[in-house]
Amino acid sequence: QVQLVESGGGLVQAGGSLRLSCAASGITFSISAMGWYRQAPGKQRELVANITSGGSTNYADSVKGRFTISRDNAKNAVYLQMNSLKPEDTAVYYCTTRKNWVQWWGQGTQVAVSS
Asked: Which of 46, 48, 59, 66 is the least crowded, having the fewest Cβ atoms under 10 Å away?
């Protein structure tokens, strides 16, 4: 059974930083691509960033230069460092991966950015 457990969300002022973590189990982490998505109230879930097993990264235009995705294969963990946060970054952030053609999601962690 795949399990993805996010942590690190919270309330922060605009311009502040947060670091999200996702602990993964039930997958061969070192060969798994990982991603972060977010969903704001009334909006569709959208890609924030993803990272391949080889460490290549991809970012949504809205977070480029502010967010950094990274992974630690020894800890089966993926991280999202979020700097220069804006009120429009407020959302529930989800960790995701794919195994056996199934997309797996964590329960999400809330990020709220006040102006």
From this structure: 46
